[in-house]
Amino acid sequence: MFRTRVTGSTLRSFSTSAARQHKVVVLGANGGIGQPLSLLLKLNKNVTDLGLYDLRGAPGVAADVSHIPTNSTVAGYSPDNNGIAEALKGAKLVLIPAGVPRKPGMTRDDLFNTNASIVRDLAKAVGEHAPDAFVGVIANPVNSTVPIVAEVLKSKGKYDPKKLFGVTTLDVIRAERFVSQLEHTNPTKEYFPVVGGHSGVTIVPLVSQSDHPDIAGEARDKLVHRIQFGGDEVVKAKDGAGSATLSMAQAAARFADSLLRGVNGEKDVVEPTFVDSPLFKGEGIDFFSTKVTLGPNGVEEIHPIGKVNEYEEKLIEAAKADLKKNIEKGVNFVKQNP
Ligand code: NAD
Ligand code: LMR
């Protein structure tokens, strides 16, 4: 009996059209987030090429995940020989977890001095070598690093507001998980929108729009506080060894998967994400996270916050005050340090 040997490349020609060739690049691929994120992206059937870049170690991460028998190529790059240009060439989506993480006692804003210039320089490289790519910013403080990327791309005439995203998915997966622990439900079935930004009080969980709108009083306050400060829980438990990496990798992989499904033309793909948003521009807040429908061009529709109660209105007001400052700080940084 004859057996036909089906190779990886033959499989690809059957299962993916040219329009669905998606190169995803991770900048900071050797880090605590970068490594598990690279693994999860290698397992995603919508990712056909994986480019892994870091100041050090990315070729090793690439060699390692490249042995996994899924239908994608993997290559690792270092700064030698302008590796970042090669890494970014042909990218559909660039994810940026490059930057330092928090230690106990620090706020995300305390990372600004180090991470602002890292993100600025990587954004310059994206503007030069992958000007059409979608960009997902993970490096903290997200409320400021996203405006930094926007300003850099604007300065190069390459800014497309539909293509830039702050990855706030971790707040959503925490909300889903924490409410399920409280209510003894299946976390995979939970729906729990979180809006605003990604730090402390700028994270606004909308209990009233979740599957459990009746959670009230102290239980609600504790749940909201746990979602807003979930990052601190991990920073404290890691005791100086960094912040969330594994849950963040899962969150970024979910975001990347949603984005690529939207790009592929799948309908009704919705994720909350921090984008250039019209919602509070009148108040000087150019970026805000609400539910966003993702499509072939990236942002297809920015949803309004929707109906909220008085308690949530107060949370939103507090978030807006901090967000405005965080965004201005990012914008001013690029103006003063182009
Ligand atoms: P890490 O220190 O483990 O990894 C960071 C990696 O970035 C390192 O491998 C480092 O070599 C690399 N890097 C630094 N500068 C670089 C540059 N110029 N070019 C390429 N690579 C560079 O840190 P981590 O735990 O992976 O966290 C990374 C960032 O993500 C931190 O800023 C952290 O606060 C943030 N974070 C964000 C979220 C979120 O929800 N958005 C969640 C968790 C962590
Ligand atoms: C998180 O929410 O876990 C991240 O933003 C990392 C941090 O500093 O808490």
From TrEMBL:
<dbReference type="GO" id="GO:0030060">
    <property type="term" value="F:L-malate dehydrogenase (NAD+) activity"/>
</dbReference>
<feature type="binding site">
    <location>
        <position position="54"/>
    </location>
    <ligand>
        <name>NAD(+)</name>
    </ligand>
</feature>
<feature type="binding site">
    <location>
        <begin position="138"/>
        <end position="140"/>
    </location>
    <ligand>
        <name>NAD(+)</name>
    </ligand>
</feature>
<feature type="domain" description="Lactate/malate dehydrogenase N-terminal">
    <location>
        <begin position="23"/>
        <end position="166"/>
    </location>
</feature>
<feature type="binding site">
    <location>
        <position position="102"/>
    </location>
    <ligand>
        <name>substrate</name>
    </ligand>
</feature>
<feature type="active site" description="Proton acceptor">
    <location>
        <position position="198"/>
    </location>
</feature>
<dbReference type="InterPro" id="IPR001252">
    <property type="entry name" value="Malate_DH_AS"/>
</dbReference>
<comment type="similarity">
    <text>Belongs to the LDH/MDH superfamily. MDH type 1 family.</text>
</comment>
<feature type="binding site">
    <location>
        <position position="248"/>
    </location>
    <ligand>
        <name>NAD(+)</name>
    </ligand>
</feature>
<dbReference type="InterPro" id="IPR015955">
    <property type="entry name" value="Lactate_DH/Glyco_Ohase_4_C"/>
</dbReference>
<feature type="domain" description="Lactate/malate dehydrogenase C-terminal">
    <location>
        <begin position="168"/>
        <end position="334"/>
    </location>
</feature>
<dbReference type="InterPro" id="IPR010097">
    <property type="entry name" value="Malate_DH_type1"/>
</dbReference>
<keyword id="KW-0560">Oxidoreductase</keyword>
<dbReference type="InterPro" id="IPR036291">
    <property type="entry name" value="NAD(P)-bd_dom_sf"/>
</dbReference>
<dbReference type="GO" id="GO:0006108">
    <property type="term" value="P:malate metabolic process"/>
</dbReference>
<feature type="binding site">
    <location>
        <position position="140"/>
    </location>
    <ligand>
        <name>substrate</name>
    </ligand>
</feature>
<dbReference type="GO" id="GO:0006099">
    <property type="term" value="P:tricarboxylic acid cycle"/>
</dbReference>
<keyword id="KW-0816">Tricarboxylic acid cycle</keyword>
<feature type="binding site">
    <location>
        <position position="108"/>
    </location>
    <ligand>
        <name>substrate</name>
    </ligand>
</feature>
<feature type="binding site">
    <location>
        <position position="174"/>
    </location>
    <ligand>
        <name>substrate</name>
    </ligand>
</feature>
<dbReference type="InterPro" id="IPR022383">
    <property type="entry name" value="Lactate/malate_DH_C"/>
</dbReference>
<dbReference type="InterPro" id="IPR001557">
    <property type="entry name" value="L-lactate/malate_DH"/>
</dbReference>
<dbReference type="GO" id="GO:0005739">
    <property type="term" value="C:mitochondrion"/>
</dbReference>
<protein>
    <recommendedName>
        <fullName>Malate dehydrogenase</fullName>
        <ecNumber>1.1.1.37</ecNumber>
    </recommendedName>
</protein>
<dbReference type="Pfam" id="PF02866">
    <property type="entry name" value="Ldh_1_C"/>
</dbReference>
<dbReference type="Pfam" id="PF00056">
    <property type="entry name" value="Ldh_1_N"/>
</dbReference>
<dbReference type="GO" id="GO:0005737">
    <property type="term" value="C:cytoplasm"/>
</dbReference>
<dbReference type="InterPro" id="IPR001236">
    <property type="entry name" value="Lactate/malate_DH_N"/>
</dbReference>
<feature type="binding site">
    <location>
        <position position="115"/>
    </location>
    <ligand>
        <name>NAD(+)</name>
    </ligand>
</feature>
<feature type="binding site">
    <location>
        <begin position="28"/>
        <end position="34"/>
    </location>
    <ligand>
        <name>NAD(+)</name>
    </ligand>
</feature>
<keyword id="KW-0520">NAD</keyword>
<comment type="subunit">
    <text>Homodimer.</text>
</comment>
